[in-house]
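Quick one, T. Sequence first:
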Amino acid sequence: MTAAAPDAPVSPRAHHLPAAGLAVVVTALLAGLPLAFDGVGRLVAVAALQAALIAAWVRSTGIRGPAGALVIGAVASLVADVVLLLPERPTLDPLAAVLGLGLLAAVVHQMTRPAPRPQLVPSLAGVVLLLCAVCALAVLLVVGRLEDGPGAVTGTALVVGAALVVGHLVDLALPRPAVAPGVPCGAAALVLAVVAGAGAALLLGDRGSLADVLSVVTFGAAVGAVAALTSLGASYVVVERAESGWAGAVLQAVLPLAAAAPVAYALTLNGLG
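Structure tokens:
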């Protein structure tokens, strides 16, 4: 579903500035609503991000059978949120059933398209990746229920936001060395985005001892690296689908957070961060 290079050059300003601005909005939403409304605010923020990601992903990737893809994504995100909030003990086990049934729904969705069903395999892959992304965002609800979880959700939001904003601004000024022809992104931004993530975690975390410092820096660097690499992948999609417009910016701002959420969960569960 990606091409080596677009037919027309991509404007770095149009590619990076909207995505950086939306990254700030996403960070404020996920960090601010839980502080104001606790668990309800976290649920509202996650649901809003899932809805935005579903709409942006379907438009940006050009999935065939877009109406069905929207329905599958919406139902999967709703069910994932509910099943992760119901158990008394926070766990990711219910997501296995959501993903399994979602995969079946995605296969049936593509099989029932009118013949000759062009782009069947790429469209099926797109719906499956959408399922993974909305379920990954739902993981933030479980992170918030862990010990010190609310702080971990806030920290994840701020680390991802810092990594994305720094990465986009560096790519806007110096997209070197280029990672691929036609993609206005460079390796320097990847490195500095990881540094920004580690720095944000260090500023927010407990610095009482060397072990504490290493813990928060590891958390920030790992989450920042995942966000930066996923943002680069989203840039490939946006470059190929140059007409995606607003959806491309949303995709670049929300998909990295979805990829970072399970990593944040694993690190928080193991006492890092």
